[in-house]
Amino acid sequence: MNNKNGDNMSRCLIVVGSRRDGNSLKLGKKIKEELKKERIISNIIVPGNQKIYVCTGCMDCDQNGVCDFYDDMISNIDKVNKADTIIFITPTRWNLLSGDIKIFMDRLNPLYVPKKLENKKAIAIAIGSSSKENFSTNGALSSIDSFCENAKMKLILKYQFNNCLDSDDILSKTEDINKMLNEIKKKLKN
Question: What's this model's pTM, rounded to 2 decimal places?
Answer without folding.
Answer: 0.93
